[in-house]
Design goal:
Layout (H helix, E strand, L loop, with lengths): L8 E16 L5 E17 L3 E5 L6 H8 L7 E6 L2 E2 L5 H8 L2 E4 L13 H14 L9 H14 L16 H13 L5 E5 L7 H18 L2 E5 L3 H7 L2 E6 L2 E7 H6 L4 H9 L5 H6 L40 E2 L5 E2 L6
Parallel strand pairs: 3-8, 3-9, 6-7, 7-8
Antiparallel strand pairs: 1-2, 1-4, 4-5, 9-10, 10-12, 11-12
Length: 337
């Protein structure tokens, strides 16, 4: 398994499972199965780094970060943030921890309350924690107002727009509002759930550069989800590849993109276009056959077995563990035992 210096670990996820029950009946409900959105994943995130999570739609990326933030109560497993087990933490301890764990959501049109002004949206976390006496330093309304204005300028918004409503801004500007809101309480870690996928390509680069600059200036740690492999390569220190609720490969970003090991990772990278037409014409595309199995299926063997071009008999009945391959690289595949 991938190991890091424990002194630097900010977030540790161990055997995290998030199963959603499938029920029948209207009055007398009976559980007949479960959607295994996240099915036993483990990883660590070091302070100051960016862990990118990549995989096709429905593989459990968003559910993972929502389970980390305890927006979904995990079915089992542990999420230890800065020494605190969030899954079993008392309500008052969880409230304190939430100050240091903030999210940026995918859709900037749906994640902002259309009835609130920008000042209210960004300042709301500060107002809530001020009333509960949980801020690191006491703040009055004037200090909160100043903090909101500073945050707006920090993310590239004019402070004069603080009394405007979300519908008066473009998609990129709305996402900047969401970033400012996430920064309000000076968090240690930000969980970014596809924060650029709903934006134009030119705006994506601006937001990515903004996030990189904020990380350098504020010492932030990111867990960053994206479909776009190029985005993940650009912003991530390490990358976790997910398939059907499982992490199948975990490595440093540079190592993963130059030396992918898992058949699924290789297929993902082969599907990503390369801007050089000469290289694009020469390279061989890996076409996966079959459909992604239902997430409510219980697997006895490798989750990728049905679609893997390199499957073996052993793969059908044995779930592969993570094999350490050196150079901070781990892969869940029997080819590398």
């Amino acid at each position: 398994m991938y190991k890091k210096d424990e002194k630097k670990i900010l977030l540790e996820v161990v055997d995290l499972k998030q199963h959603f029950p499938i029920e029948t009946g209207f009055i007398f409900k009976k559980q007949v199965g479960a959607v295994r959105a996240v099915d036993g994943i483990s990883f660590t995130v070091n302070s100051g780094e960016t862990l990118g999570i990549v995989g096709e739609s429905g593989c459990g990326k968003s559910t993972t970060v929502r389970s980390i933030a305890q927006l979904y109560k995990p079915t089992s497993g542990s999420v230890v943030f800065d020494g605190l087990d969030l899954v079993n933490a008392p309500k008052n301890e969880m409230l304190k921890a939430r100050k240091n764990i903030q999210m940026i959501f995918q859709d900037p049109y749906a994640s902002l309350d259309p009835r609130m002004t920008v000042r209210t949206i960004i300042g709301e976390p500060l107002d809530i924690y001020m009333r509960r006496g949980l801020l690191d330093e006491p703040m009055d309304k004037e200090m909160i107002e100043k903090r909101v204005e500073d945050l707006m300028e920090r993310v590239g918004l004019n402070r004069a727009f603080k009394n405007r409503y979300p519908h008066e801004f473009s998609g990129g500007q709305r996402q900047r509002i969401g970033i400012a809101r996430a920064l309000a309480l000076n968090p240690k870690i930000i969980l970014a759930d596809e924060p650029v996928s709903a934006l134009d390509v030119s705006i994506q680069s601006q937001i990515l550069n903004l996030l990189s600059d904020l990380q350098k200036d504020l010492g932030l740690t990111y867990v960053f989800i994206a479909h776009d492999l190029a985005v993940i390569e650009y912003i991530s220190t390490r990358v976790a590849v997910m398939y059907l609720g499982k992490i199948v490969e975990l490595s440093k970003s540079s190592e993963l993109y130059h030396n992918p090991l898992h058949p699924y990772t290789k297929a993902l990278l082969s599907a990503a276009p390369i801007p050089d037409p000469v290289i694009e014409r020469k390279r061989q595309r890996i076409i996966l056959t079959g459909d992604v199995p239902s997430p409510n299926k219980e697997h006895k063997g490798c989750y990728f077995y049905e679609r893997c071009p390199m499957r073996m008999e052993k793969c059908a009945t044995n779930i592969p563990p993570m094999h350490a391959m050196g150079n901070d690289h781990a892969v869940a595949c029997w080819l590398y035992e």
